[in-house]
Amino acid sequence: MSIKIKYRRSALILFSFIATIVGLCRCMDHAKKPATEADAPTLAPAPVFADYTSSDKCVSCHKDIYDNYIHTAHSLTAAPATEKYIKGSFKKGQNTYSYTPSILLSMEKRDSGFYQVVYFKGEEKKAMKFDIVIGSGVMGQSYLNWRGNRLYQLPITYFTAAGQWSNSPGFPHERVLIDRPVTSRCLECHATYAQGTSGTALEPVEFDRSKIILGVDCQKCHGPAAKHVEYQEQHPEDKTAKYIVNPAKLSRIQQLDVCALCHSGNIQKTKPSFQFAAGQALSDYFITDTSGSAVLNGANIDVHGNQYALLRASKCFKMSTTLTCNTCHDTHKNERGQLELLSQRCMTCHDPAAAEFKTPTHTSVATLQKNCIDCHMPAQPSKSIAVFLQGQETPKASSLRSHFIAIYPEEAKKFLNK
Ligand code: HEC
Ligand code: HEC
Ligand code: HEC
Ligand code: HEC
Ligand code: HEC
Ligand code: HEC
Ligand code: HEC
């Protein structure tokens, strides 16, 4: 994405979906509703903090996977706010954002950590600590601040495409909003577990700070693993796995559910999200779209965050019985940008040697097998991640790969004219 920032006070509204998510998290507590006898047996006991371990425990027996995994966006999607993880600059000249000529916010490194400091006419008014980083920084990062056991989103966000600090999504442009609370929703998709202590079971507002596992770790896709580690450590002679879920052994829908938990946009909870574990049915925890993709045609689903619905609307998905996210993605590795490798995964089903594959467009591309992606999964502007540059009337949108795999004649033309 090429965005030229012309003004210091450019109002960048990115990830506005975050605001929508916060707004849409209604605090209904269906969890307290008595379960009917029919649906009760399908639910496994909800995992608690003690069922989890730390993912660095896996390294002793699964070294290759672990060493690759720590470089993935999942692993890095939430972290303590240290120098290693914060992407933005604290250098003079690059560390400020001015709201009005008299209101300035400055990012500062102090002895006790990193702060967003509000100044009014040059006088310090409030310093708020960066405590948790949300986002690996592929697109950007938002920051959370602890006050007691509550979390607040800080007013300034880092926007990677512009390489600079910007106003947090949905925040006002002319004054500093310092008290936007963050309930459990951000953590549900950017962390593996968080223990709520107040609010409703469905939407905790306070947390036990010692019982949070940041990042999407091994256990989000494999289930809590404390018992697996304990067992395998005590029985080194046993080469069969106990007390752990391998998604490869689950049904297609169960495999998809593991990813759909966080990649189907703003689905509505009916039970606490942290009670869901790999192997269970997502529809027991969320109102998922069980009517299939009848209403979806790829054009009316935003590319942001809803890869699942887009994929389901695609012919590849509908006409095959095996396609899941894992057909193309090896989530243990960071394969971002490796279009040739990803194209090879298309060819596990599509045979470029087959007669029907030699279409007019295909035969005119010499390096066809290197890149199926740009023509059939083009990067498209998100309707919800839009960036407003000051002085411009129309927002600039962030681009994401469409998971609606289809024929895009215009994209093919662009590709051929490159
Ligand atoms: C003391 C050794 C040990 C530790 C520590 C360990 N595992 Fe395992 N794990 C095994 C063995 C042995 C197997 C079975 C052989 C294999 O698949 O590699 C296994 C298999 C697995 C499988 C595949 C299960 C299957 O049914 O195919 C997963 C997933 C897994 N482990 C995840 C983890 C995670 C996550 C951690 C860290 C939280 C972890 N393991 C820590 C020994 C260990
Ligand atoms: C329903 C799951 C979900 C919720 C809730 C959610 N996110 Fe995300 N977030 C995602 C996914 C998935 C992505 C990856 C981008 C994509 O697919 O659109 C993402 C991307 C991001 C990014 C960009 C990371 C990068 O790639 O650099 C930031 C920053 C972010 N989210 C912050 C937040 C904050 C702050 C909240 C809470 C207010 C939040 N998100 C709530 C799922 C979620
Ligand atoms: C985003 C989800 C996700 C995360 C995070 C994740 N895995 Fe996996 N893992 C999978 C899937 C999906 C499979 C099955 C792949 C397939 O279809 O063969 C798998 C398979 C495995 C297996 C079986 C052997 C193999 O290589 O396929 C082991 C062992 C394993 N994972 C360990 C780990 C460990 C250890 C971590 C953390 C360091 C981890 N996984 C993180 C999704 C994940
Ligand atoms: C607990 C929520 C959660 C689950 C479960 C989850 N993801 Fe993600 N995923 C995210 C978030 C959040 C991001 C954005 C990470 C970032 O850049 O900060 C992401 C990013 C990704 C990316 C982009 C990686 C990159 O390098 O930019 C892929 C691909 C992906 N997820 C695939 C999967 C697949 C496949 C599964 C299921 C096996 C899965 N995810 C399960 C939350 C989740
Ligand atoms: C699991 C198997 C599988 C994988 C992997 C797969 N596809 Fe498909 N794809 C199919 C099937 C089945 C069809 C329907 C074929 C038909 O119409 O006869 C299809 C149809 C298509 C179509 C025609 C779509 C339309 O709307 O007419 C395109 C284009 C396509 N695939 C491209 C891709 C690309 C690009 C990839 C990799 C990013 C890919 N496919 C990966 C199975 C797969
Ligand atoms: C047919 C192959 C295929 C399937 C199936 C597939 N993806 Fe992807 N996905 C891709 C390709 C190709 C990219 C682009 C990679 C890149 O540009 O680095 C991608 C990118 C992504 C990204 C990063 C989005 C962005 O543009 O930054 C996420 C998140 C993601 N996939 C999640 C998923 C999830 C979740 C599923 C299952 C619902 C899924 N994918 C199924 C091929 C696939
Ligand atoms: C230059 C853009 C471009 C590239 C690169 C490309 N395609 Fe296509 N593809 C098209 C167009 C356009 C069509 C519609 C037929 C035509 O106009 O030739 C098509 C048709 C298809 C179809 C439906 C026709 C059929 O074969 O049944 C499939 C499947 C497909 N492509 C898969 C792929 C795969 C897999 C790759 C990578 C190996 C790929 N395409 C590379 C543009 C492209």
Provide keyphrases for this structure.
418 residues; alpha+beta; 2 domains; seven-stranded antiparallel sheet; four-stranded antiparallel sheet; globular; disordered N terminus; binds heme C
SSE topology:
Elements (H helix, E strand, L loop, with lengths): L15 H9 L38 H7 L3 H4 L1 E3 L15 E5 L2 E8 L2 E8 L2 E7 L2 E3 L5 E8 L2 E4 L2 E4 L4 E4 L12 E3 L2 H6 E9 L4 E11 L3 H5 L3 H9 L17 H12 L4 E2 L16 E2 L19 H7 L1 H4 L6 H4 L10 H8 L13 H4 L9 H4 L2 E9 L8 E6 L7 H9 L1
One heme C (HEC) binds next to helix 9, helix 11 and helix 13.
Give an account of the 3D structure:
The chain is α+β, with helices and mostly antiparallel strands. It folds into 2 domains: 16-245, no CATH class; 322-417, no CATH class. Helices cover 22% and strands 23% of the residues. The protein has helices spanning 16-24, 63-69, 73-76, 185-190, 218-222, 226-234, 252-263, 307-313, 315-318, 325-328, 339-346, 360-363, 373-376, 409-417, and strands at 78-80, 96-100, 103-110, 113-120, 123-129, 132-134, 140-147, 150-153, 156-159, 164-167, 180-182, 191-199, 204-214, 268-269, 286-287, 379-387, 396-401. The strands form 5 sheets. Strands 1, 6, 7, 8, 9, 10 and 11 form a 7-stranded antiparallel β-sheet that branches. Strand 7 and strand 8 (150-153) form a beta hairpin. The longest helix has 12 residues, at 252-263. The model is unreliable at 1-41, 290-298 and 386-393 (pLDDT under 50). Bound molecules: heme C (7 copies).
